Amino acid sequence: MIPADIPPSARLVNSRLYVLVDGRNDERQFRDLVSGLVEAKVDLLQLRDKRLADRELLQRARILRQMTRGTPTLFIMNDRPDLAVLADADGVHVGQEELTVQEVRQILGPHRLVGVSTHTVLQVRQAIADGADYIGCGPTFPSITKSFAYFSGLKFLRQAASETTLPAYAIGGIQLDNLNQVIESGFRRVAVGAAIVDSADPARSVAMFRAALAADD
Amino acid sequence: MIPADIPPSARLVNSRLYVLVDGRNDERQFRDLVSGLVEAKVDLLQLRDKRLADRELLQRARILRQMTRGTPTLFIMNDRPDLAVLADADGVHVGQEELTVQEVRQILGPHRLVGVSTHTVLQVRQAIADGADYIGCGPTFPSITKSFAYFSGLKFLRQAASETTLPAYAIGGIQLDNLNQVIESGFRRVAVGAAIVDSADPARSVAMFRAALAADD
Q1: CATH code for the domain of B181
Q2: Which of B34, B91, B107, B206 has its CA 20 to 30 A from that of A89?
């Protein structure tokens, strides 16, 4: 169990692995996936699903909250501070086209986390100035989950690593076989979707990512 | 100007015409549309746009708020209590797949309106029990804006009219040339999208709907 007096932001300090999950096709599949990831001690789990209607999305969020409460895994809701409040999530993650950090906090209150996706050094500086709790940096590699008109690449990771004063997670197309390039760019924190949740054994994939991220510590 | 001490719910009593607007393709088109509708004294305007990213949707919502403030037109946000709070909307409208009335109020507070779409008599009773401020009833006719696997039709309107204790707006495919069937079903309140906002002259369409709804009063 996690002592109740450790705020979510303090729990980011030692975090390494952030996993993005969708709502899956049914509740049973979703519970199985989350259960494996929580047992594998993922540091953060983000619920991101653009297909589900709000009522079902909130139901999935409440399951995620129930399954992570009292564990080392933080629960972050994508985009939606309203759903984060209703599901008692630990925070909200927003992109550059979504609500601003200040707007999210207006709904969320001061005690939950707000994370921001960044794709340029200017956006990294802005997120720091806006008071984000953490940033995502990417896309690192072309992704199979989300298509971008561009990808920021490893050069951006090196710039971001030297700029950021916040916990920063590299994201976008990261897999075990390219993770070394990410680490060499100065990142020891990564956010991963498909490479873990759509793998044959998500919990085993988590263990392999964690081992690779912890090497040479 | 509307006296500040008249609560939004009291302003529903004499309402007749509820118009649904999307965000249009650009801000200028949106301002032109809203301007015409507010000058034509539409009773309620709902912003509903599933295409826009949150940042742009909120920007449209703030424009709608600015253009309706102090006018007889109430501003309702579709689905999203977070955006309604941030834009200072008069209320939120939810469907059966969206958040519940109670969940919306948890984000919205007690003083703004919550409306619910209903498609069956059981849903009408549930909305009343849940404390909704108003209901939408439909779809009345096959709609060109939103496709349903079914449509509730005029029989449902007659049932809903005899059941409801709340202000109720017939919705779904309503046009000037079928409005009489709606009125004969017991409804003097309607919600209209395309038939007004995509007409050649939205303000003139509003005037014609208002005249038809006021006839025989």
Answers
A1: 3.20.20.70
A2: B91
